[in-house]
Design goal:
The chain is mostly beta strands. The chain has one domain: Beta-grasp domain (Ubiquitin-like (UB roll)), CATH 3.10.20. It has one helix and seven strands. The strands form two sheets. It has a five-stranded mixed beta sheet, with helices on one face. The longest helix is centred in the N-terminal third of the chain and has 7 residues. The chain starts with a strand and ends with a strand.
């Protein structure tokens, strides 16, 4: 797998997605970021954040998908391109 850059812009932290994490939230936690989440399954929307650039894919087709096209749930998604998030 090609490594992808995931930038957490407001936090000033950038990580590398190499496919070893189950979600973007897992990558964030490995970088010592403390972010809001609850269910880890795409139901509660606590982890919803704005995507500035890039593309993601949800781990499960049955998750709640935010109405705004630039909002994503990081607990149940993975990047499919380099990504910039507003967190």
């Amino acid at each position: 797998m090609t490594e992808l850059s995931v930038e957490f812009r407001r936090s000033g932290v950038t990580g590398t997605w190499d496919g070893s994490f189950e979600s973007i939230l897992d990558l964030a936690e490995s970088l010592d970021l403390v972010l809001a989440y609850s269910c880890r399954s795409g139901i509660c929307t606590t982890c919803q954040c704005r995507k500035i650039a890039g593309e993601i894919q949800y781990n499960d087709d049955g998750v709640y998908q935010p109405e705004a096209p630039d909002e994503i749930l990081i607990c149940c998604s993975v990047p499919t391109s380099s990504l910039v998030l507003d967190i």
